[in-house]
Design goal:
heterodimer, A: 457 residues, alpha+beta, Alpha-Beta Plaits, 2 domains, ten-stranded mixed β-sheet, six-stranded antiparallel β-sheet, 13 helices, 19 strands, B: 105 residues, four-stranded antiparallel β-sheet, two-stranded antiparallel ribbon, 4 helices
């Protein structure tokens, strides 16, 4: 049995630093590279791409990243877990296989594909059999928006990835698998953990939570003493260095920037946290109030004591549906009276929208430089004369496109027919944007059947 | 004496749908009990009055010297629906750090 296992975070979201995966597999020894691509509405973007071209529907940037590191992975026996497959993991795997063959890696790599999460084609059957897929936030049944649903995916957990690893997959590409499952699966596989080892599964889940946002655990977006965090230009992404007993350390490669300390890891632990006693995943329920942190060395935080409870009999389902349209327009006003000018422009714009009898679900105004981030809490501290410039930022939202489109034509005229000292319109007229909204629901676990395939390149 | 939370605590926030979470962490162990006593859910709800439409929930993590707040209805619908600059609630963290509490000298 493996004594220690090192899992390196390579991407924290779709669009993360392209240098990170390469640095993680070359900067020192690692056993796995974990890459998380999927945010709440990513699947719907991918579904749209797949409907235009059946060979698409996955994180396309994953392919050049893999192309760059595949020879290194093969040589150093570093394995990969990634949910880059989106709504088309087989096509993603085929593209990686093609890249591998192009690099002369035939018969040197096995690719695992995890699917079965996609429920879009099964939705009507599920609804007919009484699965209401009620919105967890609003309590509304899915029937209300059924005709506007664009994608529906159950969150799978770690076990299908474990199955792929047991079949000797070197690179496991998945659809909608939980972020934490990508880290937990290699731990289960390496240490032979069981389906009811709740404390161990919870520990691996906590490890996954800490590194799933990449550098957010190693000095990025870290508030405490932020000005003293060294060399973020060269930031080292976090690595889980774990033992079979479920304790692990968060570390990074030597000669990299950033910082790993208790305060920074604590910030990442509370990120996107709900009830800390019940961090629910398909694999277990982790209790974050049992986590013990200690500084085990420079840039080395030890995590231990994690307790877990049995998994629930449900899976979360991420559904995306068409909601409507929105647009945001901006103009910049200069001193003197920058804020007063921006406020006057906002009043004029709103009156014109009213006079046009345009109907919006919402009109939202922010004065960037004054209140866009902290609202009235910040506005109260402003000395109007000292504000050198303000960006007026107005957004509108409607079910129909027409009023939103008309709104986009009401911004530019303000430059010549509104308050003075206005600039910053180089970007041109804003475009109405389709809103694809997120519908979280639960479904019985037994309804979802994960599919695991492993093929040689 | 009165101190702003930014002097004795740090924080990180994120989103789940239309809910923002703020994890508030004491810099020193001696300050955690002050947070527990004074930074109540009701106080935080007053702090963000007019900025959120739903209730405030609070959870304690003494092991991490942290409190976790859920601010419901904070994100104008959240995610892609929201028209806010901070649609994902990333800076509610530092907005909370503007709050003042009583700290023994």
């Amino acid at each position: 049995m493996t004594r220690r296992l090192r899992i390196a975070a390579g991407q924290g979201f779709w669009g993360d630093w392209p240098e990170a995966p390469y640095r993680q597999v070359t900067g020192g020894p690692v056993d796995y590279l974990m890459m998380d691509y999927l945010a709440e509405v990513t699947m719907s973007i991918m579904q749209k791409q797949k409907s235009r071209d059946p060979k698409l529907g996955y994180a396309k940037d994953f392919i050049p990243l893999m192309q760059r590191i595949l020879p290194i992975l093969a040589e150093r026996k570093v394995k990969v877990t990634a949910n880059a497959g989106g709504v088309n993991p087989r096509a993603c795997a085929a593209a990686v296989a093609e890249a591998a063959r192009g690099l002369g890696l035939q018969k040197k790599l096995k690719i695992g594909v995890v699917s079965g999460d996609d429920l879009l084609d099964r939705l009507d059957g599920l609804l007919a059999r009484g699965h209401a897929l009620t919105n967890l936030d609003t309590g509304r049944p899915l029937r209300d928006v059924r005709d506007r649903v664009l994608s529906a995916n159950a969150y799978l957990g770690a076990w299908p990835i474990v199955e792929a690893l047991r079949q000797d997959a070197d690179i496991v590409i998945t659809g909608r698998v939980t972020d934490t499952g990508l880290t937990l699966a290699p731990l289960i596989h390496a240490f032979g953990w069981n389906t009811t080892d709740w404390d161990l599964l919870a520990a691996g889940t906590v490890a996954g939570h800490i590194i799933e946002c990449g550098a957010q655990a190693s000095g990025g977006n870290c508030l405490i003493d932020w000005q003293r965090i060294p060399d973020l230009a060269n930031v080292g992404y976090p690595i889980v260095d774990a033992g079979a007993d479920g304790s692990f350390e968060i570390v990074k490669h030597p000669r990299t920037g950033g910082r790993i300390n208790i305060a920074g890891v604590t910030e990442q632990l509370v990120y996107e946290m709900g009830n800390p006693r019940e961090y629910i995943t398909p694999d277990c329920v982790a209790d974050f109030t049992t986590i013990q942190l200690s500084q085990a060395g420079k840039d080395r935080v030890r995590v231990s004591g994690v307790k877990g409870k049995p998994a629930t009999d449900k899976l979360k389902v991420s559904i995306a549906y068409f909601y409507g349209y929105k647009a945001v327009g901006t103009l910049v006003y200069a001193w003197p009276d920058a804020l007063a000018k921006a406020q006057a422009a906002d009043r004029i714009l709103r009156q014109r929208l009213r006079d046009l009898k345009l109907e919006f679900e919402a009109i939202h105004t922010e004065f960037v430089g004054v209140d866009a981030t902290h609202g009235r809490l910040a506005r109260a501290t402003i000395e109007a004369d000292k504000v050198p410039e303000v960006q007026l930022r107005v957004g509108v939202r409607a079910r129909d496109e027409a009023p939103v489109d008309r709104f986009t034509r009401e911004i530019a005229p303000l430059i010549l027919n509104g308050p003075p000292s206005v600039t910053g319109f180089a970007g041109g007229r804003p475009k109405p944007e389709e809103i694809v909204a997120y519908w979280p629901a639960l479904i019985d676990k037994q309804v979802v059947k994960p599919i695991v395939e492993v093929v040689e390149v | 004496m009165k101190k702003r939370l930014v002097e004795i605590a740090h924080a990180r926030s994120g989103d789940k749908g239309d809910t923002a979470n703020v994890g508030l962490i004491a810099k020193l162990p001696k300050h955690y009990p002050l947070l527990v006593k004074q930074v109540t859910a009701a106080r935080v709800a007053r702090h963000f009055k007019g900025m959120i439409t739903g209730k405030v929930e609070r959870f304690e993590l003494p092991n991490l010297r942290a409190l976790n707040f859920l601010l419901h209805g904070a994100l104008d619908g959240g995610g892609t629906i929201s028209l806010k600059t901070d649609a994902q609630g990333k800076v509610f963290s530092t907005a909370l750090l503007r709050m003042e509490i009583e700290v023994p000298v």
